């Protein structure tokens, strides 16, 4: 049974975003007990991004759950001269917004370029998400909500203490975007770059021996990246939440914390090659991530992450289907 249509949810997201840009919570249909968090911190309505957002860019990716009355949106925003990426989740109850959860990936303060700091510009250049996200799955091929959540969790299970030997259900043409950046190249470009790399005489195994954001690593498919075992430095993925499931489009929107203890420094890949993860201090990524799943395989992934203190606890309770 649907509580709200996609149109209902998108309309309320429109109103919420407009209210935030105006800096006026009274313009949003908020319940009297509505709660707002920003990067894991509970804030009064009107503070944080409510006070600093001056506008939003052309990029917006909505994920709707008509059965639970929730929507999450990846949106590019402006705060003064700064361009950032916002993920905003709302929940409707009795026609008003009761929950607002924001994760914002911002460049470093002072103008210094952090990791993927110009991701908002890259998303704005694309102007809109890949249309594959919005294609309806044939009714006879649709998975249940529980089945979709279980497959989404395989991503986290395969990444945690990654050893290259797990179950990695990626389609060959899977594309992953992280903070606005393509983390895997489309097949045509990927194959062309591999051929060029081979022609240059480089050892193809060396592609996994650097950073996951190096040019060579990005010529791999999503499955190949996981099969290297490079992500062994991701010690723990916890408080995995699965608040939004869209059965029609086979999308699962999730939250999680990726803990890096800083103790996994030098290790070996699945092929025996010695590498350094480059992480020597503890920190945690707070992540919002959506997966599109077709015939049991990941075909599209979009993630937004921001660093938080190591071991940060979630600001929202876990549901029965979530994983601590």
Secondary structure blueprint with pairings:
Elements: H1 6-22, E1 30-38, E2 41-43, H2 49-52, E3 55-65, E4 70-79, E5 82-93, E6 96-105, H3 119-126, H4 145-159, E7 170-178, E8 181-182, H5 187-199, H6 222-227, E9 236-246, E10 251-260, E11 266-268, E12 274-276, E13 283-294, E14 297-308
Parallel strand pairs: 1-6, 7-14
Antiparallel strand pairs: 1-2, 3-4, 4-5, 5-6, 7-8, 9-10, 10-13, 11-12, 13-14
What attributes does this structure have?
DUF8021; 2 domains; Nuclear Transport Factor 2, Chain: A; 36% strand; six-stranded mixed sheet; 14 strands; alpha+beta; DUF8021 domain-containing protein; globular
Care to describe what's here?
This is DUF8021 domain-containing protein. With 324 residues, the protein is α+β, with helices and mostly antiparallel strands. It has 2 domains: 6-129, Nuclear Transport Factor 2, Chain: A (Roll); 134-308, Nuclear Transport Factor 2, Chain: A, CATH 3.10.450. Helix content is 19%, strand content 36%. It is built from 6 helices and 14 strands. A 6-stranded mixed β-sheet has the order 2-1-6-5-4-3, sandwiched between helices. The model is unreliable at 204-209 (pLDDT under 50).
